[in-house]
Amino acid sequence: MVDLLLLFILFMGFMIGLKRGFILQFIHMAGFVIAFVVAYYHYEKLVPALRLWIPYPTFGDSETAKLLFESTHLDDAYYRAIAFAILFFAAKIVLQIIGSMLDFVAQLPILRSINRWAGGALGFVEVYLIVFLILYVGALIPIESIQTKIQHSFMAMAIVKHTPFLSDMLKQMWIHYMG
């Protein structure tokens, strides 16, 4: 079931990119990259405050998460992931609003079919990366029902463990962090 939902979400990302076209989708993808960089450089500053505001969930069996990430300090990883997600999605929303104000750029005359298909490809990539972040954060939440759904989904496990560059990067940032 999770696999079908992921396929549907990725397909919708492609369709949205197809509708936006390459130029507008490129603006939105640049917003994604900027939001990622903002979150990457500032998430550690938010962690101490989150420890005060958000309790670490202790119900359920966190052994499945420990098996998934091979770490015993999942509470630290949890707070790093939540801080990163808050900063990322806040910046992404602001940049999405700014990107929507630049809709007029998409009206520039260009080869229509190339613009649409390239936009579809970028739309797929953007949604894939957002799904990756959501699944990675979800994999760190020690709630058995979430852990079970992720572990029993072929696509979710493949996305979390085998996304080039980002899987290892987030594992280093959140799981193996030695700061």
UniProtKB/TrEMBL annotation:
It is a multi-pass membrane protein. One of its GO terms (biological process) is toxin biosynthetic process. It is found in: Membrane. The chain crosses the membrane at residues 21-43, 77-105, 117-141. Its main location: membrane. One of its GO terms (cellular component) is membrane. The keyword Zinc-finger does not apply. Keywords: Membrane, Transmembrane, Transmembrane helix. This is Colicin V production protein.
